[in-house]
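My main concern about presentation is that the manuscript never shows what a single data entry looks like. Each protein is reduced to its one-letter sequence and a matching series of backbone shape codes. For the editor and my fellow referees, an illustration may be useful. For illustration, here is how one protein appears when written out as sequence plus structure tokens:
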Amino acid sequence: MRKSRFMESQIVSILKQGEAGVPIAEILRQHNISKATYFHWRVKYAGASVEELKRLRELEAENAKPKAVTPSAKREVLAVLQEHGVPVRRACQAVRLSRAAYYRPPRSRLERDTDVVTALNDVVVRHTRWGFWKCFYRLRRAGHRWNHKRVHRVYCALRLNLPRRTKRRVPARLRQPLLAPARLNETWALDSWPMPSTTGVASGPSTCWTRAIERAGLAIEIGTSIPSARVIRVLADCVRLYGRPARVRVDNVLSARG
């Protein structure tokens, strides 16, 4: 915002000359200003004192800065201006808030977004794995005309944008007692362990052993990643060497990895 070469007291003095009946042409020639500038001052600052004018110009300079001011913050500024006797119309112009918005009773965001929250929760309950855009398009097909920015704000406020931790579904199995096999090649056990490092500390979940055990180790595979195809290949080699067992016992972790 360009700073004017006239001080607040000078602007008030020029406006008072016009109110006193001095011809406008004489005022323009004396102070070397244009007719547009004079009438702009008269519309904006007519009847204001030097202190009020200084305060209004400070607010204009502050509002000219690139920042977002919420209506609630503007209402707080309006309350301060009214305490100093500034009329509502002039104060609304200074903070750039319409008088309709000033006189309208403010509603809490929760009250305004109740319908959005209800509709969004209904979609999420029925489709727990859906993300934001699927939920948004379902609301649109249901006839709701809220834009995506409002729905996304409510979606994040409900913390639906965070990963939802669900219980891992393990297939139901009949519990069987752990018995020692009576003969060879009756039961093979397949399991995995973290691989220890040379320093004696486990290397972590990225490195593991996978081995098939039947009283003695039939096969051992070591690697940072052991996919299911590799496990199948090792078991096929064991079947060719030792024959097919009656059953294979695994735990849930290994079956989930495989």
